[in-house]
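Could you join me in thinking about how sequence relates to backbone shape in a protein? Label the sequence line and the structure token line clearly, so we can match residues to local backbone shapes. Once you have written the record down, we can walk along the chain together.
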Amino acid sequence: MKKKVSILLSAALVASVMTTAGASPGNAPNKDGEFKLGVDVLMEDELELVEGKNVGLITNPTGVDQELNNIVDVLFEHPDVELTALYGPEHGIRGDAQAGEYVESYIDEQTGLPVYSLYGETRQPTEEMLEDVDVLLYDIQDVGTRFYTYIYTMAYVMEAAEEYDIPVVVLDRPNPINGEAVEGPVLDPDFESFVGLYPIPLRHGMTSGELAYFFNEEFDINADLSVVEMEGWERWMYYDDTPLHWVLQSPNMPTLDTALVYPGAALIEGTNASEGRGTTKPFELLGAPFVNSTELAAELNALELPGVTFRAASFTPTISKHQGTLSNGVQIHIEDRDAFQPVETGLHIVQTMLELYPNEFEFLGTNFFDNLIGNSYVREDLLNGVPADEIIAKWQDELDDFMDVRADYLLYESNDAPGRSPGSPDHPGRGNNPPGHGN
């Protein structure tokens, strides 16, 4: 008999779970007040997908049910489920490894289960890792941005599942920055990497379950795939429109505001400026020792970008770029998240820093920024002084094409947010014209 244990994430989970500023857990997310995560639907209504089977689980600290019970505990304690292996993505199954940090495999001392790293020697489960596994279960919260790597761990798991004839089940979770807004260039396949494996835009507006179907069909993975859908989630919802608590998806994703700025602010990672790692506001704080913060804030505010204000700020990162050195720059303050367009904002930040500090500000390496943005022409245009609006116009046709294909894989309705109507000032682009698409 399995006895109740507190394993892997329980203590860390209690410490790390937080409610996003402005969130109200318990708010009714739709007209019926009903909401269920994929994991809750699985355990209540679709247990036959794992019942009586040896289960391999891909998860991290975000793999909790609505009562914040860790899915490892839930499955390990269930009398009709045999949990046989665990698999961790980037940052590890505990979520404590920094970005890009090698993650080891080990044996969990509490359960005796093997914990295999999918961000170490291999990023795809091997045949040896899949011994004694009848079904693979994926349950990780995504952040809605192309270069967040969990969705590619999911794709690699699907490839391995197809190769070794193992069914794979994805437990769906919300897109925290909503399922309507789609922005940015579609990845050029020549720039395929683990921060961009498939041609999707920077902000894709899809859930992990929708992406799983999309990857499986459009890129011929052909896995035996099931998606356990959420109940009560609609495309207009941000994370704090659900009754869920925010759980850190990674060490530098502490709040919903972080996720909102991330699709554009993370482009700074491809430069010699700090993206705020090692501060309490990663991706909201951006800067470098050579920046004049007052000057940068004034120039960015003069652009009158939608839904955002910039504040002059200084900070000293404790890790990563400019560690221990005073950096000057800006903090991004979102004024209207429906109007805010993070990719456009990030592009303007990079261009403005390049214009103000041409002798100090530079791109790192040969491919890093290109891999993040998904092509080489954006960097080349920035260096050649092409206005940001002209650069944005270049990717609209490919974005339109993506939207046509994307429509075939959407699992959830796109109803109007309560109290807002399509076309109202605080509700731009709802329905057939999502924000950032076709503007």
